[in-house]
Amino acid sequence: MTNKILGLHHITAIAGNAKRNLDFYTRVLGLRLVKKTVNFDDPGTYHFYYGNENGAPGTILTFFPWEGIVKGKNGTGMATEIDYSVAAGSLDFWKDRFQSLNVKHGEVAERLGETYLPFEDPDGLRLNLVVSKNSDERKPWTTADLNADQAAKGFHNVTLNLRSIKPTATILTDIFGYELKEQEGNRYRFATDAVPTASIIDLVESPSEGRGINGSGTNHHVAFRVPNEDVQMEFREKILSKGVHITPKINRDYFYSLYFREPGGVLFELATDNPGFTVDEPLDQLGSALKLPEQYEAMREKIEKSLPQLS
């Protein structure tokens, strides 16, 4: 098999309040709400997708906002940081913006030869804005507050915290086609040359740290990108041949998914490019209406009444 994983497709995290989450990611971080739907297994809970104009793979951060869920705990066996790419010269702007909007943030720092600004969303999810040392020509979604020289372009990388990196690294290199590029302390940077952006996975080895506990402010899973279902099923066979359990193909309306838990404990997904977010809404109306999976359409009135108010 010569096919490689095409970097990150999306990342899914957990929030504790739907309206607060929506306000932060659209008004503060300036992402586009490209789809407003519900959790396939819990239709009384929203599923929000945020990204660029068309919800391109590598830009999509999704949330399950479970009202009243307890706060999670970062630790090993989970993704613990999400990094967005921004233009050079924009970090001072963002630091001032976070200060004025009372967003919890740290100081601009340097890691692996790149400057970054750490911050947290209202639930404590850890994020960074990074000025990449590699060219990033992606066109970001812009707003009245954020122009193209300031807005987030999409994912730069995601960090996985692990007790031992070796089993996870083997999945990345032997199956996904990633290569170890750099190391700084206990941080190991893997990347694929199949795509120019959203191509980096950092593995942090923390042998003495406790296991993470999912809850608000933590990541649920990391989805990797494949172009179509044929390639996806090739990867499924490859993963099965390594003795790793993986689900059958699941239709998620906007992509097809496979799920497996890699040896370090992180839930991985393989998601297709097809059919995309315009399958049920035109591009200029993405995220404007509540879209329900077909099996829940007959329950629309009941579901709409049970969902939290967003305005």
Overall description:
This protein has 5 helices and 16 strands. With 311 residues, the chain is α+β, with helices and mostly antiparallel strands. It has one domain: 2,3-Dihydroxybiphenyl 1,2-Dioxygenase, domain 1 (Roll), CATH 3.10.180.10. The strands form 2 sheets. It has an 8-stranded mixed β-sheet. Strand 15 and strand 16 form a beta hairpin. The radius of gyration is 19 Å and the shape is globular. The chain starts with 7 loop residues before the first strand and ends in a 5-residue tail after the last helix.
List the helices and strands and how they pair.
Blueprint: E1 8-15, H1 18-28, E2 32-39, E3 42-51, E4 60-65, E5 78-85, H2 91-100, E6 109-111, E7 114-120, E8 126-131, E9 154-162, H3 166-175, E10 179-184, E11 187-191, E12 200-205, E13 219-226, H4 229-241, E14 250-251, E15 255-261, E16 267-275, H5 300-306
Parallel strand pairs: 1-4, 5-8, 9-12, 13-16
Antiparallel strand pairs: 1-13, 2-3, 3-4, 5-9, 6-7, 7-8, 10-11, 11-12, 14-15, 15-16
Would you kindly provide a brief summary of this structure?
This protein has 311 residues and is α+β, with helices and mostly antiparallel strands.
Q: Which short descriptors sum up this protein?
A:
single chain; 311 residues; 2,3-Dihydroxybiphenyl 1,2-Dioxygenase, domain 1; eight-stranded mixed β-sheet; 16% helix
Examine the secondary-structure arrangement and name the CATH architecture: Roll
**Shape designation:** globular
CATH C-level class: Alpha Beta
pLDDT < 50 stretches: none
The fold-level CATH name is 2,3-Dihydroxybiphenyl 1,2-Dioxygenase, domain 1
N- to C-terminal separation?
49 Å
Topology as H/E string?
EHEEEEHEEEEHEEEEHEEEH
Count of discrete structural domains = 1
- Determine the number of helices (DSSP H or I, runs of at least 4 residues): 5
Number of strands: 16
The fraction of residues in strands falls at: 25-35%
Radius of gyration: 19 Å
Name of the CATH homologous superfamily:
2,3-Dihydroxybiphenyl 1,2-Dioxygenase, domain 1
Nearest-integer average pLDDT: 97
